[in-house]
Amino acid sequence: MTKYYDIIKAPIITEQSTKLIESENKYTFKVDRKANKVEIKKAVETIFDVKVIAVNTINVLPKFKKMGKYEGYKSAYKKAVVQLAEGNKIDAFTV
After folding, report:
1. Which CATH superfamily is domain 2-86 in?
2. What are the pLDDT digits (tens) for 9-62?
3. Phi-psi region for residue 54, left (φ > 0), alpha (ψ -120 to 50) or beta?
4. Alpha-carbon torsion (29, 33, 38, 44), positive or negative
5. What are the domain boundaries of the chain?
6. Starting from the edge strand earliest in sequence, which strands make up the sheet with 52-60, in order?
């Protein structure tokens, strides 16, 4: 059971992801870099008790950033956009 909580790291809540929730019932998560679409689908269905239709994944590459005299890279991560079936929703995204 804890395996599923290791796959889903955190929800991504931005303006664009909020528009996706309202218009297309798609939710965005930061996920483990080694997880595949099948594992992500099972994890979301188990944790949130919803029906998943589709999963799209994006590998976000590291970005170079400067903060004053310091410079470095932001860490890379994997992002998953999960589309839920009609009538399903995840309450964790509502504020």
Report:
1. RRM (RNA recognition motif) domain (3.30.70.330)
2. 999 999 999 999 999 999 999 999 999 999 999 999 999 999 999 999 999 999
3. beta
4. negative
5. 2-86
6. 8-11, 26-31, 77-84, 52-60
Nearest-angstrom CA–CA distance, 77 and 90: 22
The answer to whether the CB of 44 falls within 8 A of the CB of 29 is: yes
State the Cα–Cα distance between residues 17 and 6, nearest whole angstrom.
Answer: 22
Per the CB < 8 A criterion, the answer to whether 22 and 89 are in contact is no
Query: Is there a contact between 68 and 19 (Cβ–Cβ < 8 Å)?
Result: no
Kindly provide the b/e burial profile for residues 22-43, where b requires at least 16 CB atoms within 10 angstroms of the residue's own CB. Answer: eeebbbbbebbeebeeebbbeb
The pair phi, psi for residue 41, each rounded to 5°, is -60, -45
**Distance separating alpha carbons of residues 40 and 61, to the nearest angstrom:** 20
